[in-house]
Design a protein that fits this description.
This protein is an all-alpha fold. The chain is built from four helices and no strands.
Length: about 130
């Protein structure tokens, strides 16, 4: 008899806990960005009013495409800027690095000899000149 009572209590507690978890999940769903309900005076998101789960996708944002210039493009732009005297050979050697550092120094950039996005943004203007 005591065992049955314990089983009933455990089952009751399990169902109560499950109900609380379900309520919490529904509450969390209603707080998700983009998940609106009729109760808030706003139109319900498709499926939300029927208690179905709703997936929320982030808004489309502008993605920045990072250009990766070739060494030849870097050398040509540096040559056009009057900072590189060597051949356009595609080799990132000491002459090219020194020219990059000079360009960076003249343009208020960190003079590290690497062509990152900020350096390339300014340097690519010389590519077509």
């Amino acid at each position: 008899m005591i065992m049955r009572l314990i089983v009933v209590i455990v089952l009751f507690a399990s169902f109560s806990l499950a109900g609380c978890l379900l309520e919490k999940a529904e509450e969390d769903l209603s707080m998700e960005p983009g998940a609106v309900t009729e109760e808030a005076g706003m139109p319900a998101t498709e499926g939300a009013a029927q208690g179905k789960s709703v997936s929320v996708e982030p808004a489309v944002s502008q993605t920045t495409v990072v250009e990766k210039p070739s060494v030849q493009d870097i050398q040509q732009a540096l040559k056009n800027a009057g900072l590189y005297e060597g051949k356009i050979d595609g080799i990132l050697g000491p002459m090219t690095r020194e020219a990059i550092k000079s360009f960076q120094s003249q343009n208020g950039l960190k003079s590290d000899g690497k062509v990152g996005s900020m350096t390339w943004q300014k340097l690519k203007e010389y590519l077509v000149k």
